[in-house]
């Protein structure tokens, strides 16, 4: 009897979020925090503001929710909103200065890091609560800053709020990691 073997790739079925996904999201969040601090320093040096000045028109940086999935959904939505705000800050910056390459590059890097982090949060949400659809994408920002000073002030507020939000995200991801580790420990002990 002759057996015929065929070699082909076998793809595994989707599995629950590994703690590694959460670790990756935490690493991206840490990198986002560092890059946001660098962006803030550069923004202050170019536009000359104090970092403790923030206007009230920017979204609330605090993450809301009772369960970890609710908190992750809030992270997802606020990430989308910060992406829109950073794009607007870059647009305003180019209007005001014509284009400062170093600041534009830092804004681009932060926007890209937000996108990477969003993709990782989306993967985690799909695993943590696959039955719940992702929150809807926010609409375009309806902002009207007519003067250069108001545009600069808005930019600083966005960056400071993003810095503070990042700290909240870190705490949520730490909470998610602890839950993941507990679940993995229960699986291994059975």
Notes on the structure:
This is Ciliary neurotrophic factor. It comes from Solea senegalensis. The chain is built from four helices and no strands. With 190 residues, it is mainly α. It has a single domain, classed as Growth Hormone, Chain: A, CATH 1.20.1250.10. The N terminus is likely disordered.
CATH-derived architecture: Up-down Bundle
Low-confidence stretches: 1-15
Annotated CATH topology: Growth Hormone, Chain: A
- Structural class, by secondary structure, is mainly alpha
Helix content: 55-70%
What is the molecular shape?
elongated
N-C termini distance: 42 Å
Q: Total strand count, please?
A: 0
How many helices?
A: 4
- Rg over alpha carbons: 21 Å
């Amino acid at each position: 009897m002759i057996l015929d073997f065929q070699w082909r790739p076998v793809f595994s079925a989707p599995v629950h979020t590994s703690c590694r996904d959460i670790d990756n999201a935490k690493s991206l969040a840490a990198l986002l925090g560092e890059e946001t601090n660098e962006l803030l320093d550069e923004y202050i040096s170019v536009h000359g503001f104090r970092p403790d000045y923030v206007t009230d028109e920017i979204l609330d940086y605090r993450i809301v929710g009772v369960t970890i999935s609710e908190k992750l959904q809030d992270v997802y939505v606020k990430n989308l909103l910060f992406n829109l705000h950073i794009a607007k800050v870059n647009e305003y910056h180019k209007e005001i200065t014509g284009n400062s390459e170093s600041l534009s590059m830092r804004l681009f890097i932060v926007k890209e890091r937000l996108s990477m982090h969003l993709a990782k949060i989306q993967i985690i949400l799909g695993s943590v609560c696959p039955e719940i659809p992702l929150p809807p994408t926010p609409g375009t920002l309806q902002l009207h800053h007519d003067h250069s000073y108001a545009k600069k002030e808005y930019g600083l507020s966005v960056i400071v709020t993003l810095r503070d939000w990042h700290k909240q995200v870190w705490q949520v991801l730490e909470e998610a990691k602890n839950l993941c580790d507990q679940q993995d420990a229960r699986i291994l002990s059975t």
